[in-house]
Write a structure and sequence with these properties.
With 314 residues, the protein is of the alpha/beta class. It is built from seven helices and 13 strands.
Length: 314
């Protein structure tokens, strides 16, 4: 039996129905706090961050004719220098909704793609520029915003628990978990530069004393964590079948025997097609997965994997 998430005494997750989808990045102030902050003029970014490798650069958002759109879709153009400039990373304030926010160091000059690109076009584009076009860990993806908001508004998910984030990238969710009261947070990624920024962001949020970083290549079992954790979190990491299977296997290792309240929480964009692969692999390591609507984010899915408890006679 897998229990649904509960928050602040309310059954299910209706508490979060007021959260709205979308990403707000406020560069006019730098508030390293998850508590309420003074009102400020915000620049709203619809969908992807403006420096996402899959978003058009400034000036490309002008209204275009259907002919121009077709032309742009057929010939996407890459701008920028690929992976963002880590040394020149800027401290941004990420809006988590309802007066909560987090500080995050974000690289500058991340590569951008001009033109509307289909799902298949994205695959081809990433394959073509795999050595120069990054954009996995060095941007703030919508899934990490959604998961960060969930944790910020439901701190009981992580409070007084040990947490490990798989594929942390810039570490937004890990920082939010630490600020929400986690006793220990380990942020993992294969990219050492991103881990360095994640650690720096933890300090900016005043929670560096409970945050650690660890290099994790989920394709290499020898790099997997050896210890056990109460909660595993991850956002937008099920981007192909191999990744989905590996993340489930790592989660199974990290959760260990699984005590009361232990679980893996994964936020996955709704258009992804590898959640069944994750659930199947999770089942193989003793985890039962529930795939649910993500509160306040209709374009996301929420996966909750918990250790299966067998009762007598089962």
């Amino acid at each position: 039996f897998v229990r649904p998430l509960r928050a602040h005494g309310y059954a299910g997750m209706s508490t979060f129905s007021a959260l709205r989808c979308g990403v707000r990045v406020d560069r006019s102030i730098q508030t390293p706090s998850l508590g309420p902050r003074p009102g400020a003029t915000r620049r709203r970014v619809a969908g992807w961050r403006e420096d996402s490798p899959l978003a058009p650069p400034d000036g490309a958002s002008k209204k275009k004719s259907k002919r121009d759109k077709r032309k742009g879709a057929a010939t996407p153009r890459v701008e920028g220098g690929g992976k963002g400039e880590v040394d020149g990373a800027e401290l941004n304030t990420i809006d988590l909704g309802q007066g909560k926010s987090a500080a995050l160091y974000v690289p500058t000059d991340v590569a951008e793609v001009e033109g509307a690109v289909s799902a298949e076009g994205v695959k081809q584009l990433l394959a073509r520029y795999e050595d120069s076009l990054y954009g996995a860990g060095d941007v703030v993806w919508p899934a990490s915003i959604a998961l960060g908001r969930l944790i910020a508004h439901c701190p009981s998910l992580v409070k007084d628990k040990s947490v490990i984030e798989i594929g942390s990238g810039l570490g937004l969710c890990g920082c939010v978990a630490a600020a929400a009261g986690a006793s220990r947070v380990v942020m993992t990624d294969v990219d050492g530069d991103m881990l360095r920024l994640a650690s720096k962001s933890a300090g900016a949020n005043g929670c560096g004393d409970v945050v650690e970083t660890m290099t994790l290549d989920w394709g290499r079992k020898e790099s997997w964590p050896q210890g056990e954790f109460d909660v595993v979190i991850a956002a937008d990491v099920l981007y192909d079948g191999d990744a989905a299977a590996a993340v489930a296997a790592v989660a199974g290792r990290c959760l260990g025997a699984g005590g009361l309240g232990s679980m893996a929480i994964v936020c996955d964009p709704a258009q992804r097609t590898n959640r069944e692969t994750f659930a199947e692999e999770a089942r193989g390591v003793g985890l039962e997965t529930v795939d649910a609507d993500f509160p306040g984010h209709p374009n996301m899915r929420l996966l909750q994997a918990t250790r299966v408890e067998l009762t007598a006679g089962a």
